[in-house]
Specification:
By secondary structure, this protein is an alpha+beta fold. It folds into 2 domains: 97 residues, Immunoglobulin-like (Sandwich), CATH 2.60.40.2250; 151 residues, C8orf32 fold. The chain is built from 4 helices and 14 strands. Strands 3-6-1-14 form a 4-stranded antiparallel β-sheet, with no helix packed on it. Strands 4-5-2-13 form a 4-stranded antiparallel β-sheet, with no helix packed on it. The protein has a 4-stranded antiparallel β-sheet with strand order 11-10-9-12, with helices on one face. Helix 1 crosses helix 4 and helix 3 crosses helix 4. The relative contact order is 0.24.
Length: 275
């Protein structure tokens, strides 16, 4: 199937403002692009891309001041299958994990494992290791938090979300990631496009979405598997833009100076006749 993705983001600045952007799809999906994925800036300005420590495609710009609008519109091919369900995937002992998985066991800005460790072991210490334990954590986070777009809070950590029992998709992901890490399961944050494909259309405005992945040993060996604590069901058409320890590493825009949001739209739709 083919998916059309894009966005328009407008920010106001008040003088020269450096920014970094994570607005491109992950390098692993570049071969699936069916049209050019180019960030257009209005007014035009120079941009330079690089790979950040997590392998994400990052863009550096210097906004001279005033309003800057960035946009993209592209099509990408997708296998059209729901997220994998592999209940036999097993948990890997920490001593056998590859070095690159270890950072995703540790606490981070929004995943305060030190505050939730005892809670995690009390809740999930008797669950079956591996996929069943991760699913139990996802079920818990899904039921613990109430989604409310108007309750978004950029400073809310997993511990705060657990106590407030409300949040947006990033809060669901942070809570589930933190509980997984407390149980010695590597978990990483993911952000990207997730349209209403194969599910009833959500009347709320489209946004970028957040979910997470865990590192388990499945039938073809160790790899990352997708889970989604907000929706808690397999979904079709995830297009990953960035991976990281939490939302800090995956911020769509980071400005080094004031840059309040002036406009924001995201588009993610299946192209007719491509299924």
């Amino acid at each position: 199937m083919r998916i059309r993705c894009g966005y328009t983001i407008a920010l106001d600045t008040f003088g020269p403002t450096p920014m970094t952007l994570l607005l491109n799809v992950r390098p692993e999906r570049r071969s699936d692009l069916r049209s050019r994925e180019v960030i257009t800036f209005d007014p035009p300005l120079p941009a330079r891309q690089f790979r950040d420590p997590f392998g994400n495609v990052a863009t550096r710009i210097l906004v001279p001041g005033g309003r800057i609008t960035m946009s993209a519109d592209f099509e990408i091919e997708d296998h059209g299958k729901p997220d994998e369900h592999v209940p036999e995937a097993r948990q890997i002992p920490v001593q056998d994990l590859p070095d690159e998985a270890l950072p995703f066991l540790m606490g981070s800005r929004y995943c305060d494992t030190d505050k939730l460790s005892q809670t995690a072991w009390n809740l999930f210490g008797s669950t079956t290791e591996g996929w069943p334990r991760v699913q139990a954590i996802v079920d818990y986070a899904h039921g613990r938090l109430r989604f409310d777009y108007m309750q978004a809070d950029a400073s809310r950590s997993a511990f705060d979300g657990h106590g407030h029992q409300v949040g947006v998709c990033r809060d669901f992901a942070h809570l589930a990631i933190t509980l997984c890490r407390c149980m010695n399961i590597p978990a990483r944050y993911a952000t990207g496009y997730l349209g209403d494909i194969g599910v009833p259309r959500d009347p709320a405005p489209m946004d970028f979405s957040a979910w997470f992945e865990v590192y388990l040993d499945g039938p073809v060996g160790p790899r990352w598997y997708t889970f989604d604590a907000r929706h808690n069901r397999p979904r079709i058409g995830r297009i990953v833009m960035a991976y990281g320890r939490d939302a800090t590493d995956c911020a769509i825009t980071t400005s080094f100076g004031q840059a309040p949001l002036a406009g924001f739209t995201v588009r993610t739709d299946e192209v007719d006749g491509t299924a």
